[in-house]
Write a structure and sequence with these properties.
about 400 residues; alpha/beta; two-stranded antiparallel ribbon; about 40% helix
Length: about 400
């Protein structure tokens, strides 16, 4: 039954069944009831608060994440329209969900999010086409568990991007084309390829059959991914996206990669827009910690990316309390909430300073209770959807810092 129509039909029926179950159990609206002692406190979004998007309308877009099932929540939708003008699919547009088997594409959940965004006048950012994680095995790996050949992986990459970016053409304004291709290291690499994840399934497959005499290597999947996306959807803005982007190792690797691949694209015979970059935006995931966030390092990264000739985007912002080795799990005290808020204020002062070069700022989560890093209370709204000091720090960073030195 390998890649047979019958196999695809079975997969399709299973996925449709899962979809129906999710939609059946998902609430149409959301108002959380939280028990404190013997008292029940009903929580909800306060739509009288100043809008984040409106506050920054003259600077950059303000975004957040959504999942398809959340679009059924009327209260959440009302809040989203109030505060945000851009949405990133938190999971529904990742390869493992869109194409679990070769030749089979499952767009139901992603299309639901796309349609929700269109109905509410919200722009959509596609996340993500190529990633070592949450990918689809068929793209890079054979049934024997070994990497495909370079030619096989390249053909799969082109097929996947043509189908996916083609399906969403005209519906998304931008794509994270490649996500997290670089390893974590220290210092400044001699060449950007030295900093790549050599254990990425994409790197391993592209390395399998690379002709070293022609300068080929496992790194070539990155250029191919951007070119295939540009050719499929010429109107979409193309991003490279990564975390720990303030570390010198990754900051320099990202900038050098953009410089080299953009120079290569200028002389590529497939390029019909010679005045346009191939990698147009470097995405800073901005998954920080209160204990280690260095705002000066953030500014240095932004300045380096601008120097490389591209625009900058803050793509997944959150600041949980504590550190990677000392993760916070208790509700924030008043002073802890103020410390977190000061960092948000300092960040947004930097973002405003470089607003001419920043495409958007996207938060990775709407309230602490909905965050993938919920233990550290990382966002602007708490578990009851009430604004935290961090919200007010983002609304007026200068004023907040003057009042809370």
């Amino acid at each position: 039954m390998k890649n047979s129509p019958q196999k695809h039909r079975i997969i399709q029926l299973l996925l449709l069944l899962i979809t129906l179950v999710l939609f059946t159990i998902a609430p149409a609206t959301r108002t959380d009831s939280v028990k404190v002692g013997a008292t029940h406190i009903t929580s909800g979004w306060d739509l009288t608060l100043p809008s984040l998007a409106e506050t920054y309308k003259d600077y950059f877009m303000i975004g957040n994440v959504m999942s398809a099932h959340q679009t059924l929540d009327a209260n959440l939708t009302a809040m989203y329209k109030h505060h945000y003008n851009l949405v990133t699919a938190e999971n529904d547009m990742k390869p493992q969900y869109l194409s679990p088997a070769k030749g089979f594409y499952y767009f139901i959940m992603a299309d639901m999010l796309i349609n929700w965004a269109a109905a509410n006048n919200i722009k959509v950012h596609g996340h993500t086409l190529v990633w070592h994680s949450q990918s689809a095995t068929w793209l890079t790996t054979g049934v024997d568990g070994k990497p495909l050949t370079r030619a096989e992986a390249r053909a799969n990459l082109q097929e996947y991007i043509t189908n996916v970016a083609g399906h969403f053409r005209g519906k998304v304004i931008s794509w994270d084309v490649v996500n997290e291709a670089f390893s974590d290291g220290s210092g400044i690499p001699n060449h950007w390829k030295d900093a790549l994840r050599k254990d990425s399934p994409w790197y391993l497959a592209y390395e399998n059959g690379a002709d070293k005499s022609k300068g080929e290597s496992g790194a070539d999947y990155i250029y191919d991914a951007f070119v295939f996306t540009r050719l499929t959807d010429p109107e979409a803005t193309l991003f490279y996206n990564d975390y720990n982007e303030t570390d010198a190792w990754k900051r320099e690797a990202m900038a050098m990669m953009a410089e080299e691949l953009n120079a290569k694209w200028r002389t590529d015979e497939r390029n019909t827009q010679p005045d346009r970059l191939l990698i147009e935006v470097l995405g800073m995931q901005a998954h920080y910690w209160t204990d280690s966030l260095d705002v000066h390092a953030v500014e240095a990264a932004i300045a380096r990316f601008i120097k490389s000739g591209v625009k900058v985007a803050v793509t997944e912002l959150d600041i949980p309390y504590g550190s990677w080795t000392n993760q916070h799990s208790e509700p924030l005290t008043k002073e802890e909430a103020l410390n977190q808020a000061r960092l948000y204020a300092q960040l947004f002062m930097v973002y405003k300073k470089y607003a001419a070069h920043i495409d958007r700022v996207t938060f990775w989560g709407k309230a602490d209770s909905q965050s993938w890093r919920a233990k550290g209370s990382p966002l602007l709204f708490d578990g009851n959807f009430a604004p935290k000091p961090a919200y007010y720090a983002v609304i007026d960073p200068e004023g907040f810092l003057r009042a809370n030195r």
